[in-house]
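TASK: fixed-backbone design
INPUT:
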């Protein structure tokens, strides 16, 4: 009985610590993966259609600035009048920054 209590407490503590990392992963899966792919390679139907680049490519990563990535997430990506990527909705500045870091982590 005491053991079960301890385990519950430990599990809750772990959840608090990893909450934001889990959120980012969830946001990526929900809002980004359909184009960029769960693995960031952009190897999806939408990714091919939109000619999305591969986030695991170190050379492409090097060409991206954090500020531009943040701007893309915040304001979306446009090609003239055509929207290529919609601005992320309902995300806080912190969450968007966490997404930039998440995208960075795809680099091989
Ligand atoms: C409708 C498909 C689509 C969705 C959904 C989408 N993107 Fe994109 N994203 C694109 C396209 C298209 C580009 C521009 C082409 C490229 O550079 O690969 C792009 C570019 C980017 C870039 C690079 C910007 C730069 O500076 O060149 C980042 C970072 C990015 N997306 C992050 C995200 C994140 C984070 C999400 C989820 C919140 C997301 N994208 C959702 C289509 C999408």
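OUTPUT:
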């Amino acid at each position: 009985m005491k053991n079960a209590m301890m385990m519950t407490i430990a599990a809750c503590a772990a959840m608090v610590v990893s909450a934001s990392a889990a959120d980012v992963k969830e946001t990526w899966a929900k809002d980004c993966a359909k184009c960029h792919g769960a693995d960031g390679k952009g190897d999806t139907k939408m990714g091919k259609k939109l000619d999305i680049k591969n986030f695991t490519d170190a050379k492409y990563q090097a060409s991206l600035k954090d500020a531009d990535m943040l701007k893309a997430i915040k304001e979306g990506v446009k090609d003239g009048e055509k929207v290529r990527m919609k601005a992320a909705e309902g995300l806080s500045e912190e969450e968007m920054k966490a997404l930039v870091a998440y995208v960075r982590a795809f680099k091989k």
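COMMENT: Residues 31-32, 34-36, 46, 50, 52-53, 64, 68-69, 72-73, 77, 84-85, 88, 99, 103 surround heme C (CB under 6 Å).
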